[in-house]
Hints:
Elements: H1 2-36, H2 45-58
Amino acid sequence: MAASMNILTSSILHTALAGTLMLGPVLALGVAHSSQEFRMEKRGAGLVLFVSLQRQSLS
């Protein structure tokens, strides 16, 4: 009974480790890509609004 439990535990740990090693980099790329979407772009009208709000807060 104890031997079969050790084999089962070993099998589960190997499967979890393999899954982590395969999905870890994919998950890291997804997180890195999603954080880029929240950056504020300062071009065109966004830049004009940003600069005008900054100037208004100084006066």
